[in-house]
Amino acid sequence: MLIYRTLSASVCLFIEDEKDITLPFLRELDESMGTKLTPIVSAISEYCSQQISSVNNLSEYAPRFIYFNKMNLAYKSTTHLDNKQTGNLACPRDSIKIISDMNSKKPTLDYAGDIIVKTMNDYWVVGRLSNLREFYITIQQKNANLIDINEEMKKLCDAELKGIFFHDL
């Protein structure tokens, strides 16, 4: 195994036992890999920094969401302030706990359904399941009712998940 590193990317290469790893071989590999890998790493870094800045530019009270498509493993989220997704939350922990509880109740929803919960600190947590897609949002609106929250959910779906079909319930 040979580990090649350029900029902030590391690539593991498995080389056959019969191949001698010599200095000319390593130079040839560097010449070949470096020119191809550098633009890819730059593009990935730029994309990641755009994602972080777009999440950080949201206001404190902006709706936060998690979208997951089980069919193609697509994922999109604004609940974390960084791409590590291991903390640094942009919404209250109790909202994340409620989302986790909603996720554990998926089998009771059958094929499609909505769950809406209002927390003690005026957050609304909404879970929508449809076509093996899961969409969870947290919204802070103090004097909202179920109709307002449902409308906000539809607006957020249209804005963030363009072209993704959810069954209307």
Automatic annotation (TrEMBL):
One cellular component term from this protein's GO annotations in UniProt: Mon1-Ccz1 complex
CCZ1/INTU/HPS4 third Longin domain sequence ranges: 62-156
Single biological process term from Gene Ontology: vesicle-mediated transport
Signal peptide start and end residues: none
Top-level taxon in the UniProt lineage: Eukaryota
Transmembrane domains' residue ranges: none
Protein name: Intu longin-like domain 3
Native organism: Popillia japonica (Japanese beetle)
